[in-house]
Design brief:
mainly alpha, 10 helices, single chain, MetI-like fold, globular, 233 residues
């Protein structure tokens, strides 16, 4: 018990002192996860909205595939991206393996289906509500997508939050394609796993404390923005 108390005290000290190693890991984690969510949103949000309003042969299969990809095992995604970026792979010449860019790609691949599937659910409700009005203005389903995305922007904050939570908690895929290289590709989740296995509980606890604080802060900010938007609506 004394060891645990000592580890917690040291962890708090590391956070309070803004330990350079801790800060470097946290900043890299935020850069990777936020960039991945942004890239995934550029693909997932329009795709989800388009699936909500469009009707075409095979739509049900596409929706089912998206829902299935929400549960894509991270290690499988990491392995596929590893094969693509390895020297023998089709993108090996780019030299992206074991870099933060590879980690961003892995997280974006995992997050994009989640954003697309959840966006489709949100947009279907809005489309049912505004379809007749938009059609009266001559808007086709494809042209209605930007309008629906803007109108549902506050609800989509929750969708983006789910994507950020998935990205920031990822371990397997980023470990495979990033290599967990100290000072270069080591992020909070991989560092927690490594330091725990090494028995360095203070650093692992400090990283866990920071990660939880970030997730709670992002949740609070998103909820605040959504509440403010609903009041202004």
């Amino acid at each position: 018990m004394n060891d645990l108390h000592s580890a917690v005290a040291q962890a708090i000290s590391l956070v309070a002192a803004a330990d350079p190693t801790l800060a470097q890991i946290v900043l890299l984690s935020l850069r990777v996860s936020l960039t991945a969510v942004l890239l995934a949103a550029l693909v997932g949000l329009p795709l989800g909205a388009l699936l909500a309003v469009a009707r075409f042969p095979g739509r049900g299969a596409v929706v089912a595939m998206l829902n299935a990809l929400m549960g894509l095992p991270p290690v499988v995604a990491g392995l596929l991206i590893y094969l693509l970026l390895s020297r023998a792979g089709p993108l090996g010449a780019l030299g992206l393996l074991f870099t933060p860019t590879a980690m961003i790609i892995a997280q974006a691949v995992l997050v994009a289906p989640i954003l697309a599937a959840l966006t489709r659910q949100v947009m279907e409700g809005l489309w049912e509500e505004y379809a007749e009005q938009l059609r009266s203005f001559g808007a086709s389903p494809a042209r209605a997508v930007p309008t629906l995305l803007w109108d549902g922007r506050f609800a989509l904050l929750t969708v983006l939050l789910a994507g950020f939570g998935r990205a920031s908690a990822e371990v397997g895929a980023v470990m495979i394609v990033g290599g967990n290289i100290e000072g270069f590709t080591r992020v909070m989740t991989t560092a927690i796993a490594l330091e725990t296995s090494k028995g360095d509980l203070p650093l692992a606890l400090a990283l866990g404390l920071v990660l939880m604080t970030i997730v709670l802060a992002v949740n609070a900010l998103a909820q605040g923005l959504r509440d403010r938007g609903l009041r202004l609506a």
